[in-house]
Every structure is written in structure tokens, then in C-alpha cells.
Amino acid sequence: MSWQFFLILGLILAFDAILIKTLSWAAETSNLKKYRIRTPETYRIPKERKKINTTLNGLLSLSFFGAVFYHFGDLIIGNHSVGGVTIFGEVLATLLLYDFMYYFLHRAMHHPKAMKYVHGVHHFVRFPTSNESIYLHPVENLAGLSLLCIAMAIIGPISAASFLLVFLLHSSINIIVHSNLALPHPIFKLFNFWALKHDLHHGKTLNRNYASIFPFWDQMFGTAA
Ligand SMILES: [Zn+2]
Ligand SMILES: [Zn+2]
User: Fold this and answer.
1) Which domain covers residue 14, as residue numbers?
2) What value does the mean pLDDT of the chain take?
3) pLDDT tens-digit series, residues 187-205
4) Helix/strand/coil for 184
5) CA angle 83, 85, 89 (to 5 degrees)
6) Within-domain flag for 225
7) Per-residue pLDDT averaged across 88-101, rounded?
8) How far is the CA of 150 from the centre of ligand 2 (A)?
9) What's the 110 CA to ligand 1 centre distance in angstroms?
10) Which of 1, 103, 178, 209 is the most exposed place for a label (fewest CB within 10 A)?
11) How many domains would you assign to the chain?
């Protein structure tokens, strides 16, 4: 992998960190907090605990990707150079397949036993902000990232450019769905759609809206709200 690849990867990680901080600031302290979808009276999770959990999950994700690249990199990223249409196709196919598999993983994690020991950690957050986008049990974190890598390997090996785009979209959409903001401008239509859809999953309708990117998996399997 070239140094440019790692430079862009680093920039994506920096972008994600800025997106998390900006959106949680917007929801909690800025003038934009009036556009918050639901505001809690008190937070159930101490700030310190959130920080420890999300920092450890960030490190776990990086270590996981490092290990997967080291052992299975050839299955995920190919050396071929591709054009824009192929990149678009690889990215779309990977995200569609990932979200399809994630739908079932997430639905399975709502089984009472899995909820009690694993997914309940994330659902203990009743009023999410972007800060809690990776507030997870480590097993859930690893399971989600494994699905993403499996999707890339099934569709791929995909190009390095496609991988970077998948990584950017997957991480930033996960941050946006937890933003808890519905902003008043048509430009934010998709942003608001994702945030409102996932807010219902944390709030009113726990067993609806399992998919994280596309709406049609929930519509197809009768779990859309
Ligand atoms: Zn859930
Ligand atoms: Zn969530």
C-alpha cells in the first residue's frame, strides 16, 4: 500500500474526529441545539465512562483493521487501477451488501440474551449524540467491522480508492445517524433522514429501523418505522 493511501486514511480519521466533535457540540451547546430531535433532562452515562469506552473502541477498530490488512489484505484490496464507474459500483455494492448483513446482525443483537450482554451497552444511550456513535460493547464493534471486511472481500478485492470511500462513508454515516439533529434546510434532507430514523431506534421504537444506511432493508422485512 502506498504512502498516499495511509495519508488519505489518516485524513479520513481526522475528518471523523472533527465531525464527531462538531455535531456533538451542535447538539449539546451551540445555538443549533434547538434543532435537536430529543433532549434529555439528565444523561445516564458519566462523561468519563463515555470517553473511556469510545477511546478504547477507536483503538480497537484501528488494531482490528491493522490485523485484517496484515493477514487478509489481499482479499480486501486489489492492486488494480480502476475508473470512476468501477469505483462507484464497488462502493455501492459493498455498502449494500454490508447494510444487508448488518440488518440481520443488528436484529439478532436484539435477542434478549444478546441485548443483555452485548447490544444493551449501546442502547443504554437513550439520547445519543455523535459522541456516542461508537459507544459499544467491544464484541459489537468487532462484529460490525468484520461484516464490513467480509462485504469488501465478497465484492472485491476492491480498489484502494473504493476502500477509502467505503471507509469514509461507513464511518461518517455512523456518526451522522447518532447526531440527533434535524437541521432546517433542504440540503440536510439525507442527513436528517438518517438522524431521525436512528433516533427512533434509540427512543420510541427499539425494534424498528435496524439497517444503518439504506431504508429498504427495514421496509422489505417489515421493521421500518
Ligand atoms: Zn439496536
Ligand atoms: Zn445507535
Assistant:
1) 3-220
2) 93
3) 999 999 999 999 999 988 8
4) coil
5) 120
6) no
7) 97
8) 21
9) 6
10) 1
11) 1
